Amino acid sequence: ERKANPDTQEGEGRNKDFNKQYIELANSAMLFQNTPNPFGEGTMIKYIVPENSEAEIIFYDEFGKELKKAKIKSGIGEVNISSINLVSGVYSYSLLIEGKIFDTKRMIKQ
């Protein structure tokens, strides 16, 4: 089995491919599942928002009632959620980009 040497042309090609994929990813959007899920005291949500885009994450209770909006910066980031004011149950969160819902996920508070 042949291994790539980072000092060779082949290694440089791999780095260029990785950088190209990273740039493509940074120009797209993604909402990740919160971790941990289910959660007790708190949870974290990671996201990717295209550069120079206005974005926010909106949180809803199990009936779809909006609980909170959090403006987020473009790029790769994360939001930490404290569950101090949350009762046990199912919640959802949506990533809005330029005022449009991009994706929605569910999370469970124990």
Summarize the structure in short:
With 110 residues, the protein is α+β, with helices and mostly antiparallel strands.
- Count the strands? 7
| Sequence of secondary-structure elements | HEEEEEEE
Rg on CA atoms, Å:
18 Å
As laid out across the biggest beta sheet, the strand order is 4-3-6-7
Largest sheet: 4 strands, antiparallel
**Percent in helix:** 10-25%
Q: How much of the residues is beta strand, in percent?
A: over 45%
Unreliable stretches (pLDDT < 50, length at least 5) are: 2-11
Class per helix and strand makeup: alpha+beta
Total of helices: 1
Average pLDDT, rounded to a whole number, is 84
Shape: globular
| End-to-end gap | 48 Å
Describe it for me?
This protein has one helix spanning 9-26; strands at residues 30-31, 42-49, 55-60, 66-72, 75-82, 89-97, 100-109. The protein is globular, with a radius of gyration of 18 Å. The longest helix has 18 residues, at 9-26. It has 110 residues and is of the alpha+beta class. It has one helix and seven strands; from the N terminus they run αβββββββ.
